[in-house]
């Protein structure tokens, strides 16, 4: 590898400065990597020892029932004890856990001690409403501090939270409540995003309207103060319930393998999968990865700009930062509201030292131009991070120079809802190549294979697989263990199949190419083509629909749809627009198709499966590939 600091050639290698190396917690990547590769169980047990256990585990890994691996078997634990209670006996009791800024510029700060009190009170609220260990609670809120409070309160008493991203709409929420059989929904009267109010409570009311879901109580946090609908007996104000709740609530002693949360994510069928994570292994994995990769220190001000409703927020806004005792920034609203320097003003105002975000955000900022970051003093930044989709070298370099001042290494972290935490990622001391997530984390082994499961040669494209278990892995799909096996473990026996394609270069650096299944990444959000299709088909005019992703400059992918109309409907531009809005209303604005095209036929296999790759090739003017299975 040749040296090539601060040049605009994206083939260069960006080596850490002396200063970065001097302050890095892990200085010798190679030595620790070799140690963890040879002694993975010892490595993970040592990490687990950094956390507090009510009872130590008997066995680090139980792999007797593959692929249902168990970690820290016999251990008694609660992640919330480690995120909150553990800090109360130290000076961190008075340390700020979250600095929050509303889109309206209002500001709140909450210390660890106070957060512990709020969480304990809300845990008592949940208990008083009959929530018990193992019960599911759906959380559908805007980006307010009460969202982590609700999550932590569930975990404190052993209830299983199911957070639904606030950008999803009626049908997506409804399906997730139905699948999880939640008796309680926690929401807000609304959320501020881009100067508008998202009517969260209204969406909850619409989702529950048919009256066939088991929801008994809806708890509403007041954020906007706007008029909302109210169902007497079912709906309760957060502040009313909290006013009566006691701040004393002992942590439930959980088994390491007890469920912590479920989080729905899109797969290749219309029904989203509920990935299940557990208290012990997930805690050890997220705690360790944040500590090593973002190298968090007590003096840092760390800002993960994701939404808590996605896995990035679960792991790296809520659990890992709190377990590490970090001060986090949380910002409620849109990135360029009211002006394209909103984020940079937050970095300057709070002296943010670590900023972790998605390539789509960076590409969006690139379009507004360098003058916006230049207005602000961002010298407090020392590390940057990227997640959610491959970062194109142009965006990497823009981020590196215009945000990081050419001084801050970029941690391009590859991982998934299923993996719980970072899997392929640099550390501050690792030399970087723009666009590569570099190498597997300590204790992780990744391999790129061909169709038959044989490792491919360097620089050849193939399927990304993981060949070892790790503590943060999802344990199953809630309610559907067969689907868990089928989706992730059946294609290449003995390997976890990621659904991504990748290549590995001559230095062992991984380059993620993208999804190979029917999952789309739109602005970093994970959506299934099948979900978009079923939203379209729910409109009376639509007989059949197909959705594909085509490259988009800012969003990474944009959704293109092909629709066959029912007899009697005419494919007018007005109807196309109506269908776009229909998808946004049913699934959420993030799923609104870029384009709806009316067709009379769709390419299908003889067994009736839509061949989306053929649609995609046609749209891009590329060769259509093997058509032997095409029906017509
Ligand atoms: C993609 C998000 C390239 C990938 C944490 C993966 C990435 C999917 C990266 C998981 C990255 C995530 N480089 N691609 N650094 N990070 N991806 O479940 O396709 O929302 O399979 O988890 O995002 O998306 P999910």
Mean pLDDT: 95
SS-based class? alpha/beta
Give the beta-strand count.
30
Identify every distinct bound molecule in the structure, by name, code or SMILES.
Answer: 5'-O-[(S)-ethoxy(hydroxy)phosphoryl]adenosine
**Biggest β-sheet description:** 8 strands, mixed
Explain what the structure shows.
This protein is an alpha/beta fold. It has 19 helices and 30 strands. The protein has an eight-stranded mixed β-sheet, with helices on both faces. The chain has a seven-stranded mixed β-sheet with strand order 5-4-17-16-18-19-20, sandwiched between helices. Helix 18 links the parallel strand 29 and strand 30. Helix 2 (29-38) packs across helix 3, helix 4 (79-88) packs across helix 5 (112-128) and helix 13 crosses helix 15. It is globular and about 70 Å long. Residues 1-8 have low confidence and may be disordered. The structure holds 5'-O-[(S)-ethoxy(hydroxy)phosphoryl]adenosine.
List keywords for this structure.
19 helices; binds 5'-O-[(S)-ethoxy(hydroxy)phosphoryl]adenosine; 632 residues; alpha/beta; 23% strand; seven-stranded mixed β-sheet; 30% helix; eight-stranded mixed β-sheet
């Amino acid at each position: 590898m040749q040296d090539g600091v601060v040049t605009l050639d994206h083939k260069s290698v960006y080596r850490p400065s002396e200063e970065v190396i001097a302050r890095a917690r892990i200085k010798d990547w190679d030595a620790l990597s070799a140690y963890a590769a040879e002694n993975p169980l010892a490595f993970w047990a040592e990490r687990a020892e950094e956390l507090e256990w009510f009872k130590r585990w008997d066995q680090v890994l139980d792999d007797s029932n593959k692929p249902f691996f168990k970690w820290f078997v016999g251990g008694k634990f609660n992640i919330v004890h480690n995120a909150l209670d553990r800090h109360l006996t130290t000076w961190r009791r008075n340390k700020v856990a979250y600095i929050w800024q509303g889109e309206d510029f209002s500001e709140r700060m909450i210390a660890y001690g106070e957060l512990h009190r709020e969480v304990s009170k809300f845990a008592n609220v949940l208990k008083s409403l009959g929530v018990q260990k193992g019960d599911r609670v759906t959380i559908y809120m805007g980006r307010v501090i009460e969202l982590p409070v609700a999550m932590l309160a569930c975990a404190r008493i052993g209830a299983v939270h199911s957070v639904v991203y606030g950008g999803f709409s009626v049908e997506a929420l409804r399906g997730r409540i139905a699948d999880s059989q939640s008796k309680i929904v926690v929401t807000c009267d609304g959320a501020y995003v881009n100067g508008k109010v998202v009517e969260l409570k209204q969406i909850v009311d619409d989702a529950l309207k048919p009256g066939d879901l088991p929801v008994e109580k809806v708890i509403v946090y007041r954020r906007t103060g706007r008029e909302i609908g109210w169902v007497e007996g079912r709906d309760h104000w957060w502040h009313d319930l909290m006013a009566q709740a006691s701040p004393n609530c002992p942590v439930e002693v959980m088994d390491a393998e007890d469920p912590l949360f479920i989080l729905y994510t899109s797969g290749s069928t219309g029904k989203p999968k509920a990935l299940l994570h557990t208290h012990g292994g997930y805690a050890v994995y997220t705690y360790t990865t944040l500590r090593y990769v973002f190298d968090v220190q007590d003096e840092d001000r760390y800002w993960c700009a994701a939404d808590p409703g996605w896995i990035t927020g679960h792991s790296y806004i809520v659990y890992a930062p709190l377990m590490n005792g970090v001060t986090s920034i949380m910002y409620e609203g849109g990135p360029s509201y009211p002006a394209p320097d909103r984020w940079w003003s937050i970095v300057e105002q709070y002296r943010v030292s670590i900023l972790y975000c998605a390539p789509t955000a960076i590409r969006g900022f690139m379009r507004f131009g360098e003058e916006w970051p230049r207005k602000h003093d961002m010298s407090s930044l020392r590390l940057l991070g990227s997640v959610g989709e491959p970062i194109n070298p142009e965006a990497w370099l823009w981020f590196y120079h215009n945000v990081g001042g050419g001084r801050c290494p970029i941690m391009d972290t590859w991982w998934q809802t299923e993996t719980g935490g970072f899997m392929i990622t640099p550390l501050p001391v690792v030399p970087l190549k723009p666009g590569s997530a570099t190498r597997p984390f300590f204790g992780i082994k990744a391999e790129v294979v061909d169709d038959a499961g044989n490792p491919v040669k360097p620089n050849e494209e193939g399927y990304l697989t993981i060949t070892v278990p790790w503590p943060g892995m999802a344990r199953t799909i809630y309610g559907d263990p067969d689907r868990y096996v089928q989706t992730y473990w059946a294609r290449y026996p003995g390997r976890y199949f990621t659904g991504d394609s990748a290549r590995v270069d001559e230095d062992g650096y991984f380059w993620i190419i993208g999804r190979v299944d029917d999952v789309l990444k739109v602005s970093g959000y994970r959506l299934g083509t099948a979900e978009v299709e079923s939203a379209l088909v729910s409109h009376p005019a639509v007989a059949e629909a197909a959705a594909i992703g085509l490259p988009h400059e800012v969003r990474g992918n944009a959704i293109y749809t092909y629709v066959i109309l029912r007899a009697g409907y005419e494919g007018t531009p007005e109807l196309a627009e109506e269908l776009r809005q229909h998808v946004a209303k049913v699934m959420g604005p993030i799923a609104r198709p870029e384009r709806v095209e009316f067709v009379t036929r769709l390419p299908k296999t003889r067994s009736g499966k839509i061949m989306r790759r053929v649609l995609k090739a046609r749209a891009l003017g590329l060769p259509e590939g093997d058509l032997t299975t095409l029906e017509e």
